[in-house]
Structures are given as C-alpha cells and as structure tokens.
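Suppose a colleague, Dr. K., hands you the sequence of a protein chain of 153 amino acids and asks what its three-dimensional shape might be. Before reaching for any lab equipment, you can write down a predicted structure in token form. Begin with the sequence itself:
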Amino acid sequence: MRIGNYENSVVYNEFMSEIIEKGMVLSQGGSRVEVKILPEGECDSTCPLKSACRKKDLVVDAENVVNANQGDEVKVKIETSYYYNALFLIFILPLILMIGGYFLGSNIFQSENVGYIFTVLSLLIWLLVLRFTSKFYKPYYRIIEILRRSQNG
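The predicted structure, expressed as tokens, is then:
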C-alpha cells in the first residue's frame, strides 16, 4: 500500500486476521529459523513519521513450514489475535479495573477517597496480571512463502 512517497511494509488481508511482512532468513535450527524483518519504503529526513520507524533491525524466531534456507527472502505471517490480546491487556483491562475499583471502593465505604485508593490498588493488580501473563503473549511467526532463494543455497 502506498501512502504518498512512502510504502507500507505491512500487508493486511481483507479480514485483518493476519499480518504479513517480508524477511530474510539469518540462520536455521530444525523447524525454526531466525528471520530478520526487512524494512520497506523510504524514510528520509523529510518524512513526518520518521520517529515511528524502526531504529533497529527486528529479528524474530519463525516456524519454517516451507523449508527456507539461510539467505532466502521470505514472507512471514503473524496472527493479529496476538495484537488484540495485547491491546486488551494494555489498554482495556486497566481502564475496566480503574473504573471498577473506584466504584467498588466509593460505594462500599461511602467515601470518595477510598474510591481513589481502590483505583490505585486496581492498577497494582493490573501490573501483577501483566507481569505474570506477559510470557504467554509472545507473537507467533510463521514463514508462508519463499520470495527469492539465496544464491549460495
């Protein structure tokens, strides 16, 4: 998708159930490979969104279902359900906990100050939930297509 002079490297299917990016296989290890996600498009000094561009290379661990070799250029897919779960945990859950904590504290104890204390306590609960569930929300990358085979493979 082109936006002005800049090309978006992320491709969405029509139902937004997956995100597909281009990458380069760096190393192999059985059915899993390390893939460097390739930046696409231009981002020069005049780009108004330059600060949003990746500064460092993104290297991910991906499932190799198409038997890609080191140096191959590939398409890597990630399910958007990962992002939806992360968005819920980071944005929606704390909002629900804060509002719920405030109303719970202020209605049970009939004091607005206790409502504020319950709001802070609910945020501490959210931080604990985030801490213990973060290890379960790792993105799952899978190579779905080889775009170009390497010359040495």
